[in-house]
Amino acid sequence: MAQSFGLRHNLSHPWPMMAAMNTPTPSAGRDDPLYPRARQLVLFRRDPGIATLQRTLRIGHQRATQLRDAMLGDILDHDEQEQRWRIADAAQDGPDLLVQNKLAKAAHWISAAQSMVIAAGAGMGIDSGLPDYRGDEGFWRAYPALARSRLRFESIASPQAFQERPATAWGFYGQRLQLYRAATPHAGFGLLHAWGQRMQQGCFVFTSNVDGHFQKAGFPAARIYECHGSIHRLQCTANCSGDIWFTADLRPQVDEAACEWLGELPACPRCGALARPNVLMFDDWHWNHARSQQQRALLDVWLDSAQTPLVIEIGAGRASPTVRNFTRRMQQRGSRLIRVNLHEANIHNLGDIELALGAREALEGIQQHRAALV
Ligand SMILES: [Zn+2]
């Protein structure tokens, strides 16, 4: 009789043993209320380690072990010979219940909202084929010429670069301008626009992206705040007049292999000094923020009438905190938050909806649930 109880704690075959026992183990394994989140965590991180479960869910070793063991036969396999846990083949790309629940909840929130702020960072552009500048390696993959001279994003995107090596600085921005002009905003932009149009007070965009893709996707200019400016506008490096002008006539000729601007560099039509993109760079004391401030004023007026809009934050990482800080202020004012972030979602957060998905995948997922609501 003592023997049969001993078997229950034999962890080399935990799930089949537990299933075979008639005595249930309260709040252990699959009955544990944390099981869905633990399961989600393992799937997203691709990591069946006990330590990750303990740290992320803030639980003890025993509970984490029970949770992980309960995933055997669900989403995990255990390789007896190598003594290794791995994600089961069947679980690699199967539908995930918790994600579907969150997408459905997000669809409900959007349907019920009177107004919405779209707070977007770099992750929003990735699905339109724009490069990911996260980390030196990501940046240098997109700009091999800058990798050869070990020029980091922070070094080339700076007023100092326009002073010291203007042809390279313009080579970089000229290439980006061409890329942003050529790229088509992904389907997620159109979905957000359509959702906003159905809301009583509509929506407003708060974005740190300088690509101009919300305008391109049909959002009205008067409903967009570009907190870091726009690559489609220029200013004088000497700031002679405070003018900001449109780049419509600018036709970049760039030697991409060398990341060098070819021919005459863009100049200020008033004083002839070097022109530069009207975007906020690193260590930038010369950015002309007049246009951005006007947009901000429009946002403030809109916020007064919209009161507590739903906030949908997309692809805004902690590394560039402007968008996240705005989101936090909106939460303090009582706004609900839907956060979409492939790398930095807090997926076990209870109050808001946080989705560790790419922008397009999340928005299309929400749209599917909206269609089901109608
Ligand atoms: Zn000038």
**Low-confidence runs of at least 5 consecutive residues:** 1-26
By CATH, the topology of the largest domain is Rossmann fold
Mean residue pLDDT: 88
- Per CATH, the superfamily of the largest domain is TPP-binding domain
Cα gyration radius (Å): 25 Å
- How far the N terminus sits from the C terminus, by CA atoms, comes to 59 Å
Keywords: Metal-binding, NAD, Transferase, Zinc
Binding site for Zn(2+): 236, 240, 268, 271
EC number: 2.3.1.286
Protein name: protein acetyllysine N-acetyltransferase
Compact summary:
The chain has 17 helices and 13 strands.
Would you spell out the secondary-structure blueprint of this structure?
Blueprint: H1 2-8, H2 14-20, H3 35-45, H4 50-57, H5 61-70, E1 76-79, E2 84-87, H6 97-112, E3 116-120, H7 123-126, H8 135-142, H9 144-148, H10 153-156, H11 159-164, H12 166-182, H13 187-197, E4 203-207, H14 213-216, E5 224-226, E6 229-236, E7 244-246, E8 254-255, E9 260-261, E10 275-279, H15 290-306, E11 310-314, H16 322-332, E12 337-340, E13 353-355, H17 359-373
Parallel strand pairs: 3-4, 3-11, 4-5, 11-12, 12-13
Antiparallel strand pairs: 1-2, 6-7, 6-10, 8-9
Protein name: protein acetyllysine N-acetyltransferase
GO molecular function: histone deacetylase activity, NAD-dependent; metal ion binding; NAD+ binding
Domain Deacetylase sirtuin-type: 96-374
